[in-house]
Amino acid sequence: MHASWVSTLVHVPLRLAQRGAEPRPLTRVLVGSMSEDNHPATLSKMETIDSGTMATVGGGAPAPKWAQKTITLPPHKRGCHLITPKILKEIGQELSDFKCGLAHLFLHHTSASLTINENYDSDVRDDTETFLNKIVPEGRSAPWKHTLEGPDDMPAHIKSSMLGCALTIPITNGQLNMGTWQGIWLCEHRDYPTPRKVVVTLNGM
């Protein structure tokens, strides 16, 4: 896999006024502290933030951080594949800098998809592929007009739209906060796959 990071620390306005819009009321932000179990422990004060004020509040609290990386995955055969380890290998160092935030994954393709599902039993991935092939038929009897690249062409586009090309996962204490049995899947819908690019964007504190 090949990847490159674009990483920066950004001071982000809490609200961006729409161009030409009338001024809006000031934003009020609760500033407090968290207990060890991530529940609010104390409320220190209420800050009033103007739309042009940067998101550094509460006596110099750190501003939101952003990092972005494009990961190139090698070709995978048609079917559903668990790629969590590959993603974590590429973003693990940067991910560890975030205590709380979001990880957004975006696939640059229209004939593959991303989803979150079972990370343990590979039969789940096989059964999902069987289901997709059953509900989106291929071959001469299929009603599709778009067949420029073969009988799997239009079915691949339909499956991509069904499952989607983007995921958003919470970040907690430097880790992707997924359930015990959840994993990130790349679903390849073409018979002759190619490398797939995934843009990973991290933001948070």
Mind explaining what this structure looks like?
The protein is an alpha+beta fold and 205 residues long. It has one domain: Sandwich (Jelly Rolls). 18% of the residues lie in helices and 39% in strands. It is built from three helices and eleven strands. The protein has helices at residues 84-95, 122-135, 153-163, and strands at 2-9, 27-34, 40-49, 65-73, 79-82, 100-107, 112-118, 166-172, 175-176, 182-188, 196-204. It has a six-stranded antiparallel beta sheet, with helices on one face. A three-stranded antiparallel beta sheet has the order 5-10-7, with helices on both faces. A two-stranded antiparallel sheet has the order 2-3.
The CATH class label is Mainly Beta
Strand order of the largest sheet: 1-4-11-6-8-9
Strand content is 35-45%
| Tally of discrete structural domains | 1
- Write down the overall geometry: elongated
Find the CATH superfamily: YjbQ-like
Individual helix count: 3
Largest sheet: 6 strands, antiparallel
CATH hierarchy: architecture: Sandwich
Number of strands: 11
Name the features.
3 helices, Jelly Rolls, 205 residues, alpha+beta, single chain, three-stranded antiparallel beta sheet, six-stranded antiparallel beta sheet
What does this entry show, briefly?
The chain is an alpha+beta fold and 205 residues long. 18% of the residues lie in helices and 39% in strands.
Topology:
Layout: E1 2-9, E2 27-34, E3 40-49, E4 65-73, E5 79-82, H1 84-95, E6 100-107, E7 112-118, H2 122-135, H3 153-163, E8 166-172, E9 175-176, E10 182-188, E11 196-204
Antiparallel strand pairs: 1-4, 2-3, 4-11, 5-10, 6-8, 6-11, 7-10, 8-9
